[in-house]
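Lab notebook, bench 4. Still working through the backlog of constructs that have no structural model yet. Next entry is a single chain of 142 residues. Request: give me the structure tokens for it.
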Amino acid sequence: MSTDMAYAAGIMDGEGCLTIKQRSASQQTGSALSTSYSGEVTVEMTDETTIRFLHELFGVGSIRSRQRVAQNKPVYVWRVTDAAARKVCWDILPYLRIKQRQAELIITLPVWPQGKGPVPEEVVTMKATMLTEMRSLNRVGA
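Model written out:
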């Protein structure tokens, strides 16, 4: 068991957000085929050391900071998307206790290569179903 991966999984279970983001490629068409879905992992906290640890451990993602409105402490955010999010989820999956299903959804989210033509309707439907499940899992109070 990797102590660092187990620690990272604990951070994800407690402070992380594992989700699927939906983005419209073209707001004008309104077509489901113009919608893209991507896995995303974020951790947001005031402890910069922990955020930098995650960034260094996995070697992916971006770090940004912002000032909290009502407090003096800055908030640090580590964000990872797409294939890198899939890799992070794969690495921590054996150690997760609370967000295992969210990680599985990110890992198994179908990828349709650019230039391969339109995404088949059944793949679009599968992604939309996974998004609905993810939203249910991440609902406050769930």
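Notes after review: Residues 14 and 98 are 8 Å apart (CA to CA). The radius of gyration is 16 Å. Flag for follow-up if needed.
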